[in-house]
Design a protein that fits this description.
The protein is 63% helix and 10% strand. It has 123 residues and is mainly alpha-helical. It has a two-stranded antiparallel sheet with strand order 1-2.
Amino acid sequence: MNLVQFFKPKEVFMADSKELQELFHSCMPLFIALGDEVRLNIIEALCIASQNGHTEGLNVNEITRQTNLSRPAISHHLKIMKSCGLVEVTQSGTSNYYRLTFLDCTKQLMKLGYLVEEIFSQE
């Protein structure tokens, strides 16, 4: 059993080319966000923080210390990551804390993977 079969959506449907194109288009911001090494380093820092008990996430200063990037650079990358659903922000006092939120992104990617697998298995 491959991953696509394991995570196969309960509803079985065939995608037409327009639906597949729309799904690819909706996933593009996520692909762009994941295609940058700096953002992957931020994801890694947020993962490590979560594993170490920082369930509230990290603020920009903490991410800056862990990645050796400037605050403006971190803020720019976090904005991109937030816009595609990779991170969410919560405010505590004067600080914003960022943490990973993969659930919706994962669902979207698995749906896309399933549809692509289904198309290729028909050939």
